[in-house]
Write a structure and sequence with these properties.
The chain is α+β, with helices and mostly antiparallel strands. The protein has helices at about 45-50, 60-65, 75-80, 90-95, and strands at about 1-10, 10-20, 25-30, 35, 55, 70-75. It has a single domain, classed as Hypothetical protein YunC (Hypothetical protein Ta1206 fold, 2-Layer Sandwich), CATH 3.30.1980. Strand 4, helix 1 and strand 5 form a beta-alpha-beta unit.
Length: about 100
Amino acid sequence: MITKDITVNETVFKAVQIDLSERGKLLMIIGAKGYVMCGYLNINTAQKLGDAACMVTGVKTIDDVLNADIVALTAEAQKLGIEMGMPVKDVLKKLSN
């Protein structure tokens, strides 16, 4: 498992990468109000828990996540002004303090 701090738009986020198999990794970027996750995690569970969560797919690195667009999100994420198709770098602004 790799965890590191990354800075986007002058805000520090926690990035997590867990190598699960030769073919896939679990990737997340965590902000103060919510997180962006890869397709390994379940958006329906995040919705049930009331998390502000957004999903991206087809990513293999944290940089891929940063350059992806949102393909699914929870109601709590929508309340923060996040929309389907929004670039992750814009989403992170809404997930920060």
